[in-house]
Amino acid sequence: MLDIAIIGSGPAALSAAVNARQRNKSVCVFGRSLDSSLLFAAEKVDNYLGLPEMSGEEMLNEFYAHAVKQGVEFRECRISQILSMGDRFMVNADNEFIQAKTLILAIGMSKSRGIAGEMDYLGKGVSYCATCDGMLYRNKNVIVVGENEEGEAEANFLADVCASVTYIPLYQPVMNLKENVQVKEGKPKAVLGENGKVSSLEMDGETLSCDGIFFAKNSTPPESLLFGLQTDGKNIIVNRSMATNLPGVFAAGDCTGTPYQIAKAVGEGLVAALSAAAYIDANK
To answer: Over the Cα atoms of the chain, what is R_g?
Structure first.
């Protein structure tokens, strides 16, 4: 079991990882490749103390190299769901479940826009993980809304379970869908429900009836990643110790709100790591 699972791979995550290792905690950073970070594309960063005129790519590589030297473990994957098990957490990393005593969420600024009704029906027909919740929809009719090609894998999995699967791609081209998945072009407008459960998806000019809707997003909304997590809009609510409302869960970086600056992310990553280490020591 890990001491600390860090979700994200940007400056806040790497800072948290380095400082957690210096407290002799076992750490794994779960996230996408470094080039997925917004910082990676920066031509020049000139406002980080002591490291002027570096490109974002150079700076991230320096941060990454430091973490590697400290013995930080890295896992390039998509985290679709985290489950609280009381005294530990189960992290779903591409359908492999990994246990951790604490979490640090450094997932960056959410770039995905929700639609009306989406969060209202979370857990009541709306899901972000087909392999987690797909069996609940055996022999039922579902819709998958894909912001990227990962949605195709979700739809293909559901096609072996559900009575029907309709796939709505918000990107092009669509390449690898099974023959029994129907593709529907259009823009989702709202999730609609009856009797407290999802009943349909409103599109441009039509409404599609369904029993469930799966969203494959570029970035998962934090409150859907971990049930019960308090947010203010797209920002995770934290205190001065970077603690969230959930015991053992901390957050750092852009996901906690403005200012969206590297120095702020690195500092919050440090505080989150120290707080997580102290939490572990206090609960031995």
So the answer is: 20
